[in-house]
Amino acid sequence: MVVVSLAAMLETLSKGFRLAREKLTGQAELSEENIEAALRDVRMSLLEADVALPVVRSFLQRVKDKSVGQIVKLRAKAEVPSDGKSGEKSLKSMEVTPDWHFIKICQEELTALMGNAEGGPTEFNWAKKGPTVIMMVGLQGSGKTTTVGKLARWLHKIHKRKPLLVAADVYRPAAVQQLQVIGDKLGMTVFTGDGKNPVEICDEAYKYAYTKGYEVVLLDTAGRLAIDEPLMKELDQIKSRVKPQEVFLVVDSMIGQDAVNTARTFHERVATTGFILTKLDGDARGGAALTIREVTGQPIRFLGVGESLDKIEEFRPEGLASRILGMGDIVGLMKDFEQVVDTQKAEQDAMRMLKGKFDMQDFLEQISVIQQLGSLKDILAKMPMFGMQLPEGANIDDGELIKIKAMISSMTMTERRQPELFIETSWEQVISGGQVKGRRRVANYVESRVRRIARGSGRKETEVMELLHKFALMRQMMLSMGAQAGLLGKIPGLRSLGKLKQMAGMDLGAMMNAAGMPQMEGRRSAPRPNVDKKRDKIKRKAAKEARKRNNKKK
After folding, report:
1. Among 70, 254, 283, 444, which residue's Cβ finds the most Cβ atoms within 10 Å?
2. How confident is the model at residue 494 (pLDDT cuts 50, 70, 90)?
3. Are 150 and 309 in contact (CB under 8 A)?
4. 15 vs 397: which has the higher pLDDT
């Protein structure tokens, strides 16, 4: 299996919509002719993503019916702040061009295609009395047992519920042991019911949970390599005995159209209340997400986006629709941040940044937070409008963070807290026209420290110096932008951020001084951006002429 990010998986779906918008840019009207041309790209992307043909046809027809005849510069009203001080808002008109109106229609139809009537996530059907029972079903190999652990962790973390994991798969070798390992990792109880059949295990687990105060019971039922009658009969018996509030079908998204067929069959037999799509971080094309609800009438409830137990997302159809269209998912991004960021500490860090006290240790902690959120490409894809700015096939290397982390980890705690220790200064004479005009301070990297960090991290000395150089840039940026830059603004070398582009031509020495570090000049400093070559040539020529005059005097 080729492992990729969720953002990479969505590229197939996004490509057609991006090309369609480009074809409509500059058009004065959404006519049947230009709409048809734009929809050809959308049709191709949907089919390549393995969306069922009947679903593709109905979706395109709805978009076409809503789009044809729309005139350029449609007026829309929006609430905006009336000034920069008061909290008052006023209504202002905005112009919406046909290409963006087309995207808006696509977003509405994609959301309706994947979600409930309101577009948001479906609420849990909690038990009115006693523990809530969630029955997990699916074919063997779909990732069902791992998903049980992921969902248990999510319910405990988000809803503060105490879950009981139930090992009801007595057929697959080591299935019970696998769930026990997951339970140990999570610090949660696993009910096994040794020697009993699955129906009895589930029944006794419910009674146990009721008496012991567990709030959620997660039943990990058996799967098969294919749907068969004994499997369905057993699921019917379990459902009849324990009467679960939710029946979730775990579906491997990598099997394409077969995922939809599996979902339809399970729903017809055991009346599933929702689906969990797994392995969306793998070589999946995403078509199942757009097809399952249309075919079965039941919503997708969760997405499995990685192997670790924290890699599960509550399915938000409007968020996925926006990401497909390159418009980001800020709500989803904030939900991700809430799970990994300590709000109180984040506020303290922001105040330290405003005061210019941000150091390498803080930087190391922020990198760890970013890594918990997922790949950089996925994070950027959730930022509004950022997805559209990324070139097709753009590769954002997460390995750069690992390299940076290794270099910072090789520093002592004192060096992390005081990065200026890597700089030593001296004074040299300033000579002009053969005469001493004054003195200037020259800063060089401390070679012994740089060499030690390079050796300890397995990187080159030039890479260590580059990190220090970029850290100075980043520190100055934090001083100027405060906490507004967010976590992504703290990553050295993320040149796509507009602020870094603006700063590219600034004097590095000035930034070092503003950040509480000495001015860096001299041979051992990292190359300054946008060096004035003409000015340096004049300086070299003047110095050469001065040396000649001095030699003649001698």
Report:
1. 254
2. very low
3. yes
4. 15
Q: What is the pTM of this model?
A: 0.60
Alpha-carbon torsion (360, 362, 363, 369), positive or negative:
positive
| DSSP state string for 177-227 | HHHHHHHHHHT--EE--TTS-HHHHHHHHHHHHHHHT-SEEEEE----SS-
Q: Which of 26, 163, 165 is nearest to 102 (CA)?
A: 26
φ, ψ of residue 533 in degrees (nearest 5): -65, -35
Residue 252 CA from chain centroid, whole number: 21
Domain ranges of the chain: 132-315
Helix (H) or strand (E) segment spanning residue 384? none
Correct CATH for 132-315 of 3.40.30.10, 3.30.565.10, 3.40.50.300, 2.60.120.1440 = 3.40.50.300
Give Cα 468 to chain centroid, integer Å. Answer: 27
Instruction: Give, as one character, the DSSP assignment of residue 506.
Output: S
- The 10s digit of each residue's pLDDT in 361-407 is 888 877 777 766 666 666 655 555 444 445 555 555 667 788 888 99
Q: Evaluate whether 292 touches 300 at the Cβ level (below 8 Å).
A: yes
pLDDT tens track for 516-540: 343 333 334 444 434 345 556 666 7
Give the closest residue to 335 by CA, choosing from 350, 318, 317, 313.
313
